[in-house]
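Hi all, posting the design record for the shared folder.

TITLE: backbone redesign
STEP: 1 of 1
STRUCTURE INPUT:
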């Protein structure tokens, strides 16, 4: 479904992508793929997602439908609002609620805390990502938090990281873990601080590297930390 969301985004943005140096060679923007081919591929992805959806409980099914609608709306946000990364956060992390509901059969306080935390994480890393194209985006009238936050970019990025960290910590405590156990999450906070301080927002290559590190390094750090916390109980 993440793939389907990317296809929907590229269909909406094919003309905008053609105006941005980094994205002008994307398949639809460059013309190497046709819209018909994109719709066929999107259909295959949605059919696959639907096959999985059939096995979910009613709560998870309902949330999935909401998520699909949000994915369809998201590409419009960069045209309508100065803060599309906020809507992306709500959209991209809907899987946290779907996964929780699929296991627990319902949504609980912990699931909302995780969801809110991940929204702020997305705002942080996607603001870094958006700095790659900031000059072309301004010319093409594409809106983003990278433009809107202005000189406060690094401060807001770090505040978003801190909120994300605290939400994960709170969710761990509500799941029965103690403060001495959640200390294992601390290395991830240090990495967030280092990422914010070291990123060169005027260097597209560094922005992309830091953006990717949120999955390859920060995400792995949090995952390993939560495993350790679980075994430490």
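Okay, here is what came back for every position:
SEQUENCE:
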């Amino acid at each position: 479904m993440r793939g389907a969301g990317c296809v929907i985004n590229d269909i909406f943005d094919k003309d905008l992508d053609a105006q941005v140096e980094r994205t002008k060679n994307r398949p639809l923007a460059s013309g190497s793929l046709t819209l018909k081919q994109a719709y066929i591929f999107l259909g295959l992805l949605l059919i696959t997602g639907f096959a999985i959806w059939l096995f979910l409980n009613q709560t998870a099914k309902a949330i999935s439908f909401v998520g699909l609608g949000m994915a369809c709306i998201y590409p419009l946000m960069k045209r309508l609002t100065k803060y599309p990364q906020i809507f992306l956060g709500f959209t991209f992390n809907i899987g946290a609620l779907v996964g929780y509901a699929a296991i627990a059969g319902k949504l609980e306080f912990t699931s909302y805390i995780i969801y809110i935390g991940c929204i702020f994480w997305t705002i942080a890393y996607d603001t870094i990502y958006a700095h790659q194209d900031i000059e072309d985006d301004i010319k093409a009238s594409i809106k983003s938090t990278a433009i809107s936050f202005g000189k406060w970019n690094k401060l807001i990025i770090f505040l978003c990281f801190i909120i994300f960290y605290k939400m994960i910590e709170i969710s761990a405590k509500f799941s029965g873990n103690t403060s001495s156990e959640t200390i294992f999450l601390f290395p991830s906070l240090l990495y967030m601080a280092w990422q914010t301080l070291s990123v060169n927002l005027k260097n597209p290559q560094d922005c992309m590297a830091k953006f990717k590190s949120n999955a390859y390094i920060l995400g792995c750090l949090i995952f390993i930390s939560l495993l350790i916390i679980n075994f430490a109980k």
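COMMENT: The radius of gyration is 19 Å.
Let me know if anyone wants the other runs.
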